[in-house]
């Protein structure tokens, strides 16, 4: 299977991006292809209905990866009870043809306890794009974020956090498999 992961932070050392990199690692360890789009490293232009930005390399790569994906992981920090602006901008460039009947896992990292507002917002966007939300999501907050700080080895991720990430990822991969068979 092909999984596209979008790390939707504009911060170099974002824990949401590091968590997404770990999920990519786990997807690959299951024998699947995983394409990570890091919006901090490969920014895309501001969305405008008046300009399709044809030929913009990062945007074309994003659209291609989304078309080829069997499943999608969307990761964001939580800013003021919502998703990041760079992720919202990327999603505005995409349409139903990128999400239609594909499994989508929502992931968030928040400085507070949980990132429920951003995750709920992501799931609403996914429904509008005709994606299929994974019934579970990954939310890390507070001290849990220490497991995904720069320089922390995957082997040093807190065991409870690692167990939860793996459990939710397995549910997402199972859903992706079922939906891929139906297409």
UniProtKB/TrEMBL annotation:
Domain spans labelled NADPH-dependent FMN reductase-like: 1-141
Pfam families in the cross-refs: FMN_red
Enzyme class of the recorded protein, top EC level: oxidoreductase
GO molecular function terms listed in the Swiss-Prot or TrEMBL record: oxidoreductase activity
InterPro entries, per database record: Flavoprotein-like_sf (IPR029039), FMN_Rdtase-like_dom (IPR005025), NAD(P)H-dep_reductase (IPR050712)
EC number(s) per entry: 1.-.-.-
Keyword tRNA processing: no
Keywords assigned: Oxidoreductase
Listed transmembrane segments: none
Family membership noted in the UniProt record: Belongs to the azoreductase type 2 family.
Record protein name field: NADPH-dependent FMN reductase
Source organism of the structure: Paenibacillus violae
């Amino acid at each position: 299977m092909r999984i596209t992961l979008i790390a939707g932070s504009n911060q170099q050392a974002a824990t949401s991006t590091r968590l997404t990199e770990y999920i990519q690692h786990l997807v690959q360890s299951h024998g699947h292809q995983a394409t990570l789009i890091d919006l901090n490293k490969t920014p895309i232009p501001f969305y405008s209905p008046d300009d399709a930005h044809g030929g913009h390399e990062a945007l074309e790569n994003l659209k291609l990866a989304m078309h080829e994906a069997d499943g999608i992981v969307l990761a964001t920090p939580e800013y003021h009870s919502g998703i990041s602006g760079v992720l919202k901008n990327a999603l505005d460039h995409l349409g139903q043809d990128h999400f239609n009947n594909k499994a989508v896992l929502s992931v968030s990292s928040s400085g507070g306890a949980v990132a429920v507002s951003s995750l709920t917002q992501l799931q609403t966007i996914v429904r509008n794009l005709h994606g299929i939300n994974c019934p579970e999501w990954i939310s890390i907050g507070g001290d849990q974020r220490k497991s995904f700080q720069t320089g922390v080895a995957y082997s040093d991720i807190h065991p409870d956090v690692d167990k939860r990430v793996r459990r939710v990822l397995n549910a997402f991969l199972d859903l992706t498999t079922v939906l891929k068979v139906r297409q």
